[in-house]
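Standup notes, structure subgroup. Blocker cleared on the heme C input:
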Amino acid sequence: MRKVLATLGIMVFCTTCLVFGALADDIPDEITMNSTVYKQHKKSLVTWGHTEHAEDFDVACSDCHHRFAGGENVWEEGDAVEKCEACHADPKPPRGKGLSKGQKVGSHYWAMHANCKGCHMEQGGGPVTCNDCHPREKSRWAFTWR
Ligand code: HEC
Ligand code: HEC
Ligand code: HEC
Ligand code: HEC
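Run returned:
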């Protein structure tokens, strides 16, 4: 019994290390968005400066990371970070006019553009045109033209 408890103890301890280790060290500097909700990407992948946003552009972590409780974002720095697709899992853009936020929010496509492009438009800074985020792939064009 003691041995089992000791083993369990070590397992709990190690899991804690892993979780906190991930929090302390794994804040990525640069991110290439490559969500698995899309069977195939139509556009080129978006690479952007994560640390740059937080540090140079002064964007709060909680402007992008959230966990809602009672309508409030209760995510705090130090909390675990889930991928956006954990909650915004629909690859399709919302279709139809006059949809409410609740009808759009499940869409990964919508959530990404609302977050990234939404802030850039609001602040008048950062890319808002398709190609500035999804750079054209020269080789692909060359191939298409043959
Ligand atoms: C401009 C928006 C934005 C800001 C500001 C931001 N993040 Fe992120 N962060 C993201 C996105 C988007 C991802 C990638 C999520 C995905 O792949 O679904 C990410 C990924 C992460 C990850 C890795 C998660 C994983 O599963 O690999 C951690 C940890 C993280 N952010 C922590 C932070 C912390 C701490 C701050 C503040 C110092 C911060 N972020 C600021 C948008 C942001
Ligand atoms: C734990 C689940 C969860 C995760 C993970 C998550 N979201 Fe959300 N997100 C929600 C919920 C729930 C709402 C709706 C909140 C509300 O009622 O206004 C929301 C709303 C949004 C909105 C609309 C915000 C607004 O101002 O109305 C955007 C944009 C968004 N999320 C982007 C992201 C991005 C980008 C990521 C990854 C960095 C992410 N979400 C990760 C659950 C999540
Ligand atoms: C809350 C505001 C905010 C959010 C959210 C945000 N950005 Fe930005 N972004 C900025 C600002 C501010 C700049 C800098 C504009 C300037 O000074 O030219 C910027 C600049 C950029 C640049 C150009 C960087 C450079 O070095 O020239 C890229 C690319 C970019 N953002 C991608 C993204 C992506 C992708 C997301 C979503 C995952 C995102 N941004 C979310 C505010 C935001
Ligand atoms: C501010 C940056 C930004 C701008 C501007 C932007 N996107 Fe995106 N887009 C993203 C991000 C981030 C994703 C999520 C990619 C992922 O996680 O795989 C995305 C995803 C997509 C996807 C789904 C994935 C795929 O490749 O099929 C499509 C389609 C797309 N964008 C088209 C567009 C079009 C068309 C425009 C111009 C009208 C545009 N985007 C403008 C950042 C941007």
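Discussed briefly. DSSP finds six helices and four strands in the chain.
Next: hand off to the docking folks.
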